Amino acid sequence: MKKPNKKQSTVIIVVVLLTVYYFCLPKVLFDDPYSTVLEDRNGELLCATIAADGQWRFPQVESVPDKFSKAIIAFEDKRFNYHPGVDLLSFGRAIIQNIKSGKTISGGSTLTMQTIRLSRRESRTILEKLIEIILATRLELRCSKAEILSLYASHAPFGGNVVGIEAACWRYFGRGAEDLSWSEATLLAVLPNSPSLIHPGKNREQLKAKRNRLLDKLKSLGYMDDVTLSLSKEEPIPEEPSPLPHYASHMLSRMKNDGFSQQKIKSTLELHLQQRVEEILNDHHQRLSANQVNNAAAIVLDVESGNVLAYIGNVKNQKGHHSDDVDVIVAPRSTGSILKPFLYAALLDEGKMLPKTLMPDVPTVISGFSPKNFSKQYDGAVPADKALIRSLNVPAVYMLQDFRYEKFHTLLTNMGMTTLDKPADHYGLTLILGGAEGTLWDITGMYASMSRTLNHFFQHPGKNKYDINDIHSPVYNSSNLTSTKKVNSELTETSFLSSASIYLTFNALKELYRPGEESGWRYFNSSKKIAWKTGTSFGFRDGWAIGVTPKYAVGVWVGNADGEGRPGLTGTDAAAPIMFDIFSQLPDNSWFTTPLLEMSKANVCALSGHRATELCEAIDTMLIPKVGLETKACPYHQIVHLSKDKKFRVNSACTDMQNIVNVNWFVLPPIQEYYFKPENLSYKSLPPFKENCTISSLFASMELVYPKSNSSLFIPRNLDGSVGSTVFELAHRNPKIYVYWHLDGDYIGRTKGTHTMAINTSEGTHKITLVDDNGETLERSFKILSKM
């Protein structure tokens, strides 16, 4: 094989050397770990974590402040903008100085060479200096002068464990690098040259002298006048590093977990609102901690965008106790009653009820599930909107039974509830009473989505009205707003909830007073209209409060992160005051516009809340969803046949037709009447039947409160081993009448006024028969599961 000639060999060598030169510089110059830095929407620092190697090293800056740029070039490398990475004049002068002194007193390194040295961290030898020269010239070919300066400023040591200009500015001046004074810029410029000088209380005068000499040099270069120079020299040297801001620490941890570690993240938060909400939460925590309630969380959303404006995952407890590192905003907690507005709106949306339709509120057992109101009392019947704002459990269960829990499960999932990871049958009717867990993040976002859907209804009047993308989770990262991008912007005729149903729900929720079981709430004295709902989980473990306006949604949770319940821990008393204090900081006094295109005026029975019939004497005219026109008419107003003196009910079997008076009467079922009448003194029970009159089956006089028909009962044994008993309860319209009880055909006793009877019988199926003085009979079958 023919050997290459000298010329060819030279070319090969040159090519090899150029190739080596081209690839000699690593693609990534610095592989240092960085702090994770969280900023608010305006670039203000909220908080940061220290880097994995224990250094405060912020991610690389994109540009260097002009004053620092001028100062560092004047101090370290005055021909930086002109040389190719190596300043031959400075390098030659350094060699001569070192030879004359007999030791190394000057390195002649340019800023580019210093950047290479910072990245390599090798011992300072002649060979290493040659490598730095080669790599510096290569870096000049890859990067612009501004980029090289950014690399240097981001990785230069500034004393102690502070690395990089941004970390240095926050540690020494308590603010960012964008507004450096000349004094501060020159101080930072001289520190990398002697970073040990910054130790508090050590070499302060030396550091000040170096700074002032550089200030004089900058003055001579024409960068400042005499006044600026004098004022700059008067600025003090920082005594010791300042602590970094520490707001929204749970948001920072969340972003690290979401894959944003070692980055500078611009969030959607607003610093001043974040600060104020943290103060509010901490103030209330002082009150709550007296009851050993140790944790609380709050979130504020902008409705239009879904952006998170404030995020407090937990309050800080003394010495870090009580799980204050737990971010409760994303922790699944029992929902209590906080989901009831979605069910109320869903029933309105489907035309299954009107806003004030009477709902049963009586002792109830459904397939072994026996819901109880918070107060352990019953109203008999209560308007749907009042049941919502009073958060009554029994009416809510009846509503869910009518709507079906399978459909409600699907609705909640569509609205953004991500914690329903089990089939609907797993939750059943308990879904509306806290039988499922939810997060403050999801549920506050769902309230905001309802508000956003209602607001946007008016953007598309008279045609397709809804954009399904209005239903979305909150957004927290300004640099990653993909969750608000409308992938499918085609409008649809319907949404998961109509604007009319949402409006009527919010209208009910804006009531400020919470009577009954929530009587602990005091009036919130404000001109603001807020739709708000509270929730309390079983065992007083979780207190919720969520409120919305057209512009903002605020969610608050209070409790103990470890699940410990505390007496009196309710959403109304613990969480609602915090929520209202937060709303007081938000500049919004507006209210939702009525979506008239989806609503119609209708005559509604003032007593029953159903569509009025000609028998309803008191009628209200109100706006209802158009689909509500298809709901059933009032079933409670009936024509009753009375004697002329109106003291008895009669019929043609016992009274001549000409002696019968027809009267409109509002009649509730017996069990509802039993609980309704004591609370509503204007309610009139039906008169008794006249003697010898055939009893009409149209209006039953009595109804079993417990047990329901075909119930299966378990009777436990007493402590002495004897078989216990179960108490049957009856509701009768006439409190003065006797009721006679029979078990399997055998007479067992009679009752009057309060109709209760203890039953003790054998295992198997039995029949209870009840007969009143008028001969009206009620029969019910039941099964006993326990053995004698």
Apparent shape = elongated
Largest sheet: 5 strands, antiparallel
Query: Could you give the count of β-strands?
Result: 26
Number of helices: 21
Strand fraction equals 15-25%
Computed structural class: alpha+beta
Average pLDDT, all residues: 85
The percentage helix is: 25-40%
pLDDT < 50 stretches? 482-487, 515-523
Q: From the alpha-carbon coordinates, what is the Rg to the nearest angstrom?
A: 39 Å
Termini, distance in Å? 110 Å
Write out the strand line-up for the largest beta sheet, numbering strands in chain order.
7-6-14-13-12
Short description:
This protein has 21 helices and 26 strands. Strand 1 (37-39) and strand 2 form a beta hairpin.
Walk me through the structure.
This protein is 31% helix and 17% strand. It is built from 21 helices and 26 strands. A hairpin with a 5-residue loop joins strand 6 (295-302) and strand 7. The protein is elongated and about 135 Å long.
Give the secondary structure arrangement, pairings included.
Blueprint: H1 6-23, E1 37-39, E2 45-48, E3 56-57, H2 66-76, H3 88-101, H4 111-120, H5 126-142, H6 145-155, E4 162-163, H7 165-173, H8 182-190, H9 204-220, H10 226-234, H11 249-260, E5 264-266, H12 271-288, E6 295-302, E7 308-312, E8 333-334, H13 340-349, E9 358-361, E10 380-383, H14 384-389, H15 393-403, H16 405-415, H17 424-427, E11 437-438, H18 440-456, H19 499-509, E12 531-536, E13 542-548, E14 552-559, H20 571-583, E15 599-605, E16 619-625, E17 637-642, E18 661-666, H21 670-676, E19 702-706, E20 711-713, E21 726-732, E22 738-743, E23 746-752, E24 755-759, E25 764-772, E26 777-784
Parallel strand pairs: 1-5, 3-4, 20-26
Antiparallel strand pairs: 1-2, 6-7, 6-14, 8-11, 9-10, 12-13, 13-14, 15-16, 17-18, 19-21, 21-24, 22-23, 22-25, 25-26
Helix pairs in contact: 2-8, 2-9, 4-5, 4-6, 8-9, 9-10, 12-20, 13-15, 13-19, 18-19
